[in-house]
Structures are given as structure tokens and as C-alpha cells.
Amino acid sequence: MTSLLARVDRWWTRLEVALACSTAGALVASLGAWVVLKGLAAQTTSTFFAGAALRSGALALLAGLVTFRLAKGRALPTAVACAAGAVGGVVL
């Protein structure tokens, strides 16, 4: 039989791990959101086109995900449909 102190220690360790992981996840998510928002707000010039590249990549990701959802369970191979959707997103 385990002692009360050992059970409390296990519970406390689980709580600390959960808090540390959630804090690290929140930090990574906020950094990623900052990078995306900064890229979306960037002005596109003839020498600096990071904003356009980010918008194109985001649209390709969105188009690929939507195409994946629509092509699931159809006769058309899903990979071909997703690739076509992603290419269409980049072109737009």
C-alpha cells in the first residue's frame, strides 16, 4: 500500500507536467500567431515579398485542407486532389 505522501507527490508531479506543457504550448502558439500576423501585415515590394509568400502559403494550406475534406471517399485519389488544391491556392 502506498503512503499518502507518495500519492500526493505523484498527483503534484502530474499537475506540474500538465502546467509546464500547456505553458510551453501557449508560448509556441503565441509566437506562431505573431509570425503569421506580422507576415500578413507586411508590405509587398519588388525586393521584399515575404508577405505575399506567407499569404500564398496560407491559401495553399487552406485550399489543400478543403480539397482533402471534399475529396475524401470519392473515386478521385485524395492525394491528387489535395495537390491540385494546393497548387491552385499558390496560383491565386
Distance between the termini: 65 Å
Radius of gyration: 22 Å
Q: What class, by secondary structure content?
A: mainly alpha
Question: What's the tally of helices?
Answer: 3
**Could you describe the largest sheet, including whether it forms a barrel?**
none
Can you write the helix and strand succession as a string? HHH
Report the count of strand segments. Answer: 0
Percent of residues in helices comes to over 70%
| Overall pLDDT | 83
Q: What spatial form do the alpha-carbon principal axes imply?
A: flat
Spans of 5+ residues with little confidence (pLDDT < 50)? none
Strand content: under 5%
SSE map:
Elements: H1 4-41, H2 50-71, H3 78-91
Helix pairs in contact: 1-2, 2-3
Please provide a brief summary of the model.
It is built from three helices and no strands. It is mainly α.
Descriptors for this entry?
92 residues, mainly alpha, 80% helix, 0% strand
Describe this structure in words.
- It is flat and about 65 Å long.
- It is built from 3 helices and no strands.
- The model has no long low-confidence stretch (mean pLDDT about 85).
- The protein has about 90 residues and is mostly helical.
- The chain has helices spanning about 5-40, 50-70, 80-90.
